Amino acid sequence: MVLEIFYYITEKSESQMKTTASVLASNFKHWGLNHIFGIPGKAVSPILFELLHENIEFVLAKHEAAAGFEAAGYALMNQKIGVAIGTSGPGGTNLLTAAGQATASHLPVLIITGHPSMKDTGKALGQDSSTFGTDLVNMFQYVTKFSARVERGDMLRPYLQHALEKAISGVNGPVHLSIPFDVLLEEIEPFVLDLPVLQHMVSPNLADVADQLNAASRPLLFLGKGVHSSRAYEEVQRFAEHWGIPVVTTPGGKGAFPSNHSLSLGAFGLGGTPEATAYLQEKVDLLVIIGSKMSDMSTAGLAESMYPEHVIHFDYDPTFIGKSINVPTTPVLGDIKTNLQLILKDLPDKKEIFMSAPEPLKLQENTPGERMSAIQVLRAMRNSLPADAIVFGDDGSHSFYGIKHYDVYEPGTFYFEDIFGAMGNGIGYAIGAQLAVPEKTVVCLTGDGCMFMHGTEISTAYNYDAPVLFIVINNGRLDMVEKGMRKMIGTSIGGIYETPMKAACFAESMGLQGYTCRDPFELTKRITEALKYTKETNKPIVLEVLVDENEIPPTMGRQ
Question: What is the pTM of this model?
């Protein structure tokens, strides 16, 4: 009898055991993820097999870096986490760029790379990812918040828990786990981890903020992408309205405040507006910075004569507070949204009407025989896109045109990453975002240079029914670089494509519909038709816009 019980318990225990790969997949499902991004390889194949059992779609990217971008866009929109998978060796090194981009964007991405079997470590192995080959764990330590190798199945739970706690805590960011092939097949006790619930830190300086604002005679609000990270749109708007503070946005903060608000002065830094510069030139006594590192992108054009008397700086990370503007500074550390809510808690809402009704922007015909202005592209986009369309600006002069000339009517509908600046990231971000929020209109504003780098991802959008509208501003060159070199030395080296891209043909080669537009009126018509097409077919579409090769972009103010 005792022997029978022993066999029963043993068999039951063994039947409850699951492979490491299976436990990972069940956790993905528990976190509410319906898509995982990556490229297969033997070292990670056990995970892919288990996704089938959890009814999770594996999105086959065309490059691992793009898979990481897509996972980041997915995390941005689902407000949980994104997962990107790459095989050992080059699969992992390709994901390093995506990790650097996610770090700059403060997005929680779990990157999983493979490794040949742990039992063979130390032998000569193909795509070795250990210290004997390409040490991915060590490489990822420099571009993630946590990087480790899971060398036994029983290590998965504590390492995965550490990774989640690092990814979703304070300043969010990517994490990396390297899991060898035989460890993925190892049987372990199953477990499910909940995503961490943030405990927000609150600044002790909030009373000083209110006092300084009440005493200020000419304050200015300076918004960075930290407002996007904390989703503090409503709080920022109430804050500005209560004290009547004019607002400017950094390149990365574009979209954090509505352009048609009476307090909006537009952008400052690269792509900045004359109104923003003029206000700073007339001397500001109190500058309130919210969620910005104040990088050279954000401070381009800020002369020392324009410095304020005092700065209040809201941010989670103190690293860059007081570094760019050398004046007395009050740090307000902690979650932006939480700190603003506490400041506003007992303050009445203003009853005035601050928003103006959007009006169509005037479009201009091209000069006969010449290409259209990129400015006209942005005006045509604004006239044609719904107010709630989510625009992802890729890295290039095309997005700086957007920062200066594209009006935002609803906060949280324009995203641009201005720090790491990986070309092509906007393509991946838009695809991942669209899969996370299929009911939304998602637009990618990109350029021919970015399309040359990661344009094959439009095939991923097509194959997985991500109906992104891709608008490709094409002037046959790496515009920021080419124009910047001409400004410095009078000529450019390697900035012009000998054989320019034909983006519409490129799209058609991968099954998408593609159209080439040559004037803003044609573009307006095509955008309207494209939005209808994407809704009806659930497929992406590419609109290529040929623009003036010699137009000077709003990026020449960077030193």
Answer: 0.94
